[in-house]
Design a protein that fits this description.
single chain; Rossmann fold; 7 strands
Length: 347
């Protein structure tokens, strides 16, 4: 798991530059040599891909080879060297091709000011609200998107949405009518659109907290007059006990822990389990350290994540709760690109 020195508070806007500026190891005195080494390893990779684009070769293959080589470079580099690689890649002329992809462009330009926003998820969810981006992009951009949106990490993200919907329905089946649900960092709450228990009227309350006011507006517009209760709030607000929310049958945080250092992750989990009713379930998820698109995500998408293993998830769980009071499990999605932890309070 990658570590950072800054303790993200869950309220600040997370960007690639913020993550890179917070590395535990400060730049060494040999700064010029660090960039020289990075350029010697990176530029042959980017130059080959750029020539392939200029020669009109098949875009899927170009980006697939590029992503694979960046993944290998990332895994073999020190953190200081990799930070230099990212900086150099983001200034390279190959970006004129890659930025035609709506997914890469949205992530890199950050229309909402931070990484991994709910609009980005909608793009790789292939949600109809983002169809206009595909209609307006170039043929090359569409071809690149056909690859980037189908990498295992994006498929895992779509599966995560289905898992959330299923988890909500299972919570309703377990508790009966009038289930109460709490989504933390809810984004656009797209899982609500595919779960069966919401239209069936079996949920009494579904609180959906997010720090992004645009996401809150989208949720409110998608579920007017329903039991969905969008709430503008942050991790910091949760930790400070700023919200009087009561208790819930299900609490989940599916896209938040990727940005939280262990210290904050543990503090948040300790707070979230306080919202559980007896017999209630908590689920949190994290992109795993087995993804292979990490190099491309961090360079051209400017989307750095804290990737975690099964052992990392267990470490957070065991540091957060008394295992005598909770049944716990850690498990992977189908392609192992996302790892999940589930806790159920005894009672």
């Amino acid at each position: 798991m990658s570590e950072t020195a800054v303790d993200f508070d869950g309220q600040s806007l997370i960007t690639g530059s913020l993550v890179r500026s917070s590395r535990l190891s400060p730049p060494s005195d040999d700064e010029p040599s660090r960039f020289e080494i990075a350029s010697s390893q990176l530029f042959p990779i980017l130059s080959a891909a750029e020539r392939a684009f200029m020669d009109g070769l098949e875009p899927n293959g170009i980006v697939e080879r590029l992503a694979a080589r960046l993944h290998t470079l990332r895994r073999s580099s020190s953190q200081a060297l990799w930070d230099a690689v990212v900086e150099l890649a983001q200034r390279h002329s190959i970006r004129r091709f890659l930025m035609q992809d709506p997914l890469t462009h949205w992530s890199a330009t950050k229309p909402r000011g931070y990484s991994g926003d709910a609009g980005l998820l909608d793009i790789y969810y292939k949600h109809p609200s983002m169809d206009h981006l595909l209609a307006d992009c170039t043929p090359l951009g569409r071809a690149i998107y056909d690859y980037t949106s189908e990498v295992p990490a994006c498929e895992a993200g779509r599966e995560r949405c289905r898992i959330l919907a299923r988890t909500v329905d299972e919570a309703v089946e377990r508790t009966g009518e009038g289930a109460q649900i709490f989504a933390v960092a809810a984004g656009h709450l797209r899982e609500a659109e595919i779960c069966g228990s919401l239209p069936a009227g079996r949920i009494a309350r579904w609180v959906a907290l997010d720090q992004d006011s645009v996401s809150v507006e989208v949720m409110a517009g998608a579920h007017p007059g329903s039991v969905v209760q969008p709430l503008n709030g942050s991790v910091l607000g949760l930790l400070r006990r700023s919200y009087d929310l009561g208790t819930f049958d299900l609490v989940y945080a599916s896209g938040l822990y990727d940005y939280l250092q262990d210290k904050t992750a543990v503090k948040l989990l300790q707070r979230l389990v306080e919202f559980l009713k007896p017999g209630g379930t908590l689920l949190f998820a994290n992109f795993s350290d087995e993804i292979v698109s990490d190099g491309y995500m961090e360079t051209f998408m400017d989307w750095p994540l804290i990737l975690r293993s099964e052992a990392d998830m267990w470490r957070i769980v065991n540091a957060s709760v008394d295992r005598n009071l909770f049944e716990a499990s850690v498990w992977y999605g189908a392609n192992r690109n996302i790892v999940y932890a589930t806790l159920r309070r005894h009672g």
